Amino acid sequence: MEQERRFDEERILNMKTNQYSGFHKLTMEQRAAEVAEFSGLTEEEIGRLTNPGALTNEVADHVIENVIGTYQLPVGVAMNFLINGKEYVIPMVLEEASVVAAASNAAKMARAAGGFTTSYTGNIMIAQVQCIGVANPYFARQNILHHKEEILAIANEKDPVLVKLTGGAKDLEVRIVDSQIGPMVVTHLLVDTGDAMGANAVNTMAEAVAPTIEQLTGGTVKLRILSNLADHRLARATATFTKEAIGGEDVVDGVVAAYAFAAADPYRAATSNKGIMNGIDPVVVATGNDWRGMEAGVHSYCSRGDHYTSLTRWEKDADGNLTGSIELPTPVGLVGGATKIHPAAQACVKILGVKTAAELAQVIAAVGLAQNFAAMRALATDGIQKGHMKLHARNLATVAGATPEQLDAVVAKMVADKKVSVDYAKEILAGMQ
Ligand code: MEV
C-alpha cells in the first residue's frame, strides 16, 4: 500500500516535470489518462482524441468542398520538452514511425543544459501588392513611401477589430523586382495579425490599398496576396547538448560535420530540412494550422542566399559541447481557421498549453531543432536504420497479426535476422504457434 502510494506520487511528480521514463510502455489508454492529467483535459476533451470521429461529417462538410468523409492519423505526444523553463507535452499528428520517439529523446538530452531557449520577432505578416507597367519605378517607390500613413489608414479601415487588438497594418516596404516583363513595384504591407495566422485580414487589406497604389505609381495593380516568406514573423530556438549527454566529443564533431554537409550541399540540405519538418509539421497539423504555408515559408527562407541551405546551425562551443540554433518563418495562429473548427485541434492546443501564437511559434522552433538533432546524431553514429528498423518492425509485426504479448519477441527476431517484412513476421508467428 505504502509502496503503491509512493509510486503514485512519483508518477504525478514525473508527469508534472514531464520527464516520464517508460511512458511508451504504458497502454494507449494509460498514456491518454496521463496526458489529460498533465494538461487538465476534461474527459470530453481527451475523448476527442481517443475516440474516432471527433470531426463529424457535418462539420467536415463545411471545411472544404465536395466532402465525402474524414481521414484519420495517429496523435502521439513528444515528452521531455523544457522550453524557456516551462514543461511541454507536444502533440504530434503524423504517419511516420520513430519521429515522436526521436523528438522525445532529443528533448531529454537537451535538459542536461537547461532545455531550449526561444524568442520571436512578433506576429507580423506580409501582404504583397504587385504593380506593373510603371514608367518610373524608383520615383513611384518613393511616392508610395511618402504616402505611407494614408495607405496604412486605408488598410486599417478594413479591420477595426484587429486595429484595436494589435494596431493592424503598421508599416510598408516597397521593392523593385526585376522580371521578364520589366520592373515591378512590389509593396509589402506589414500587418500585426495578433494570435491569428491572418491570411484573410492581410489579403483584404492588400485588395483595399490597390487603387491608391495605382494612383501613386501610374501603373496597374495585379496580385494582392500574403507572402508565406513571413520573415517578420520569425521564431528562434537554441539549445546546448552537453558532450556527456550525447555520447562524447566524437558525437559533437560528427553532428558538426553532418551539419557542414547540409550547409554546403542543397541535396543534403533538402533531406536535413525534411527531418526538421518531421518535427514541425506534426505540431502544425495537430494545432489545425496550414502546414503547406509553413513548408513554403521554411524552404523559401532557406533559399535567401546563393544556394538552398540548412535551416539549422550546429557548432561546438568553447567547452566542447554541441550548440544548435534555428530561425524560421512561422505563419501560424491560434484563432480562426481549422484551429477553432476542429475539436481535436482544440484538445491538442490545450495539451500543448500555449496561450498565444507567439508561444506556439517558439514551441515549433524548439521541436524543429530537437528533431534535427535526433536525426543528425543518429546519422553521425549508428546510422538511421537501426532505430527505424525496430519501429518499422513493430508496425509490420502488428500488421502480420502479432498480439501485444507476441510483439517484442517477433520484433527482436526480425531485427536480429535483419529480415523486416510482413511475410517474415507471419513466418515467425506461425513458428510460435
Ligand atoms: C527521415 O524522415 C528524415 C531524415 O532523413 C532526416 C535527415 O536525413 O537528417 C532521417
Spans where pLDDT lies below 50 across 5 or more residues? 1-13
Please identify, by name, the CATH architecture of the largest domain.
Alpha-Beta Complex
CATH topology of the largest domain: 3-hydroxy-3-methylglutaryl-coenzyme A Reductase, Chain A, domain 2
In total, the number of domains comes to: 3
Overall SS class:
alpha+beta
What's the CATH class label of the largest domain? Answer: Alpha Beta
Q: How many helical elements?
A: 19
Radius of gyration: 25 Å
Cofactors and ligands present?
Answer: (R)-mevalonate
Tell me, rounded to a whole number, the average pLDDT: 94
Total DSSP E strands: 10
SSE order: HHHHEEHEEHHHEEHEEHHHHEEHHHHHH
Strand order of the largest sheet: 3-8-10-9
Strand portion: 15-25%
Q: Fraction of residues in helices?
A: 40-55%
Give the overall shape, derived from the CA principal axes. globular
Describe the structure in your own words.
- The chain is α+β, with helices and mostly antiparallel strands.
- Helix content is 53%, strand content 18%.
- The longest helix is centred in the last third of the chain and has 24 residues, at 357-380.
- It is globular and about 80 Å long.
- Residues 1-13 have low confidence and may be disordered.
- (R)-mevalonate (MEV) is lined by residues 96, 271-272, 274-275, 278, 375, 379, 384.
- (R)-mevalonate binds at residues 96, 271-272, 274-275, 278, 375, 379, 384.
Give me some keywords for this one.
3-hydroxy-3-methylglutaryl-coenzyme A Reductase, Chain A, domain 2, disordered N terminus, binds (R)-mevalonate, alpha+beta, Alpha-Beta Plaits, 4-stranded antiparallel β-sheet, 10 strands, single chain, 3 domains, Helicase, Ruva Protein, domain 3, globular, 433 residues
